[in-house]
Fold this protein.
Amino acid sequence: MNILKPLFAAALLVAVSTQAQAAGALKDILSSGVLKVGTTGDWNPMTVKDPATNSYKGYDIDIMTELAKDMGVKVEFVATDWKTLVNGVVAGNYHMTGSASVSPARMKVAGYSESYIAVEILPFTTKDKLSRFTSWDSINKSDVKVAATLGTTFEKQVNAWFPDSEIKAIEAPALQHQEVLSGRSDVFVTSNIEGATLIKKFPKITAIPVSAARSPTPIAMLLPQGDQVWINYVNNWIKLKKARGFFKTTAAKWGL
């Protein structure tokens, strides 16, 4: 009996299985000529949707457009929200997302690219209410309403940081800063990136003077967890573009 035959057959089966797994997002993108990117369109200046034209602009949009250009394909932005952002990657609704904060919960079901930017979290209110708040602790009171968009890391953070406050969880496309501007809530938290943009756009919004920001967090792209070929491709692309100054130039363009 030739014992090499079953061993060879087993090895061949493993090789075929490995190739099938490898033939994931990268092969699909190159064969279809389209890179599908999930984006929320509500994180200024990362991704902003213009309802009139159904188009997007922002730091993320420039990054994804450049990736598609370098791959020689078109980019298609797929509308999603923070609550379903991860599910869209897992379900294959898009090949990747734009920027998303790295979190242990997301890492359980999705993969991440290497990080290329980081954020930290600060609290914000309106100028007419600023006298009520002098620290993080001053927000954690029963008479304070804190707004947070469902499905975002901000929702989890405010529930953990302000157990005594009234947490106003809102459904997208409603935005947490709009809740505060309208007077329905008193405080919201967001990244230093978005906060700086909101202060410029809405003069009523102001940062609460805290001693230090919280939760410094790396930002990366969400990718299919088991598709290592695609993850490797994106990671090496990030390294290449970092070395050539693309991320630094793009960040400066958007004031980051």
Observations:
- The CA atoms of residues 142 and 164 lie 5 Å apart.
- The radius of gyration is 22 Å.
